[in-house]
Amino acid sequence: MFFMNMNAIIAMIGMIVVLALTRWWPHNKRYLLLAFNLCFLLLFSKKLFLFYLIYTAANYLCFLWLCYTSKWRKGGFILLIALNIAAVSGIRLLGMDSPDHLLFDAVIALTLIYNVLKVIDSHYFAYFFGKDARASAVDYANYILFVPTFTSGPILKFRDFMADAKKPYQVNSSQVEDGVKRIILGLFKKLVVVTWMTDVFQHVQQQELHTHQSIFLMVWFYIMLFFDFSGYSDIAIGFGRLMGYNIPENFKKPFTSPTLTQFWRNWHATLGDWFRDHIFMFFSRKAPSKWTAAGLSILIMVLIGLWHGFGWIYFFYGLYHGVVIAIESLLGKSTVNKKKVSKSYYWARCALTQLIVTVSVVVYSGSTETVSKIYRGLFHWPF
Predict the structure, then answer these.
(1) For residue range 317-374, what is the model confidence (pLDDT) as tens digits?
(2) Can you give the pTM of this predicted structure?
(3) Residue extents of the structural domains in the chain
């Protein structure tokens, strides 16, 4: 969202220049970045700034408590997770019922969806590693408020971000070139490709839909969504790495995934990794049985569906993907090794995976009416 504002783009470019000019100071990317993050949020929205000042401070104090406490550790950990989930759920429900409510802000609702996952990851780290997980308030605040990934990810891991924070700012000419190219690619996807594809999608879906048009819209929307999500990720990765932090890849050739299990390791990869890491870590400390893994797969995918939105279409979307992944697990078909199977089998499995995704991904259009119209059109033969 910030990336569609030219002032925000210029501000981040300016911050990168400042970091480059002050690279002689070993702590420049910690303290200067914190000042930049806070000033950026303050100028963007005073309500957003105040909310995150309180939210970050409160969670940092809870984080420190988990690092050092020996009493009520498990209960406190579970309570903190529950409170953070309740916060994002409450704000989302408030926004759905009353967007003009004094306490509601669309930007807070959007950013909290991503940042609550980072907060929970920090609490997990503190709970399982104790004093070894401790971090300074500066680094913790930068982790939560990091502008390039603030609204749309990729989702940063606490351990990796803290490791980067300890390193001095070092970005060479090759990394600058790669970062700039990544940002330009992302902006091209967002401003040119997605804008054009959105116009086409809206033009077609406003017509009376027949089978071939509904199929076209499903395929078209899937490709458009890829350019949209990956465009955001490209820009965030480019700016993040130019600021001295290694931002993880979010899209890893998802169209060549031979199973749905592998698809979710390649599509919005940091989200899938987060849910697998935290759900499996909490419910299965040792290698789970096939049935346990299948059940956890369904739970994870339902949660991913609800994470995208509170509604039945997102619930059934998650359930649908979870059941398919569970079946793959039970049949021992979760992965396909390209080197050990024939090319025809491999590409047939890739095509099947893309078909499974294509028939469901249109739920991300955000409109129940649009989704319903496209599905109804599948059964409206033109003859």
Answers:
(1) 999 999 999 999 999 888 888 888 899 999 999 999 999 999 999 998 867 888 899 9
(2) 0.91
(3) 2-167, 176-377
Task: Pick the closest to residue 68 from 124, 120, 133 (CA basis).
Answer: 133
CA angle 41, 46, 47 (to 5 degrees): 105
Q: Which residues of 4-18 are buried (b: 16+ CB within 10 A; e: fewer)?
A: eeeebbebbeebbeb
Rounded distance between C-alpha atoms, residue 301 and residue 314, angstroms = 10
Q: What are phi and psi of 208, to 5 degrees?
A: -75, 125
Residue 354 has a CB neighbour count (10 Å cut-off) of: 20
Residue 270 tokens read as 């940091």
Whether 84 contacts 119, CB under 8 Å: yes
Closest Cα partner for 66 from 55, 81, 54?
A: 81
Integer distance in angstroms from the first to the last C-alpha of the chain? 44
Burial of 358 by CB count in 10 Å (0-12 exposed, 13-18 middle, 19+ buried)? Answer: middle
For the stretch 71-103, pLDDT in tens is 888 899 999 999 988 888 877 776 555 555 555
Q: What is the 3-state secondary structure (H, E, C) of the chain?
A: CHHHCHHHHHHHHHHHHHHHHCCCCCCHHHHHHHHHHHHHHHHHCHHHHHHHHHHHHHHHHHHHHHHHCCCCHHHHHHHHHHHHHHHHHHHHHHHHHCCCCCCCCHHHHHHHHHHHHHHHHHHHHHHHHHHHHCCCHHHHHHHHHCHHHCCCCCCCCHHHHHHHHCCCCCCCHHHHHHHHHHHHHHHHHHHHHHHHHHHHHHHHHCCCCCHHHHHHHHHHHHHHHHHHHHHHHHHHHHHHHHCCCCCCCCCCCHHHCCCHHHHHHHCCHHHHHHHHHHHHHHHCCCCCCHHHHHHHHHHHHHHHHHHHCCCHHHHHHHHHHHHHHHHHHHCCCCCCCHHHCCHHHHHHHHHHHHHHHHCCHHHHHCCHHHHHHHHHHCCCCCC
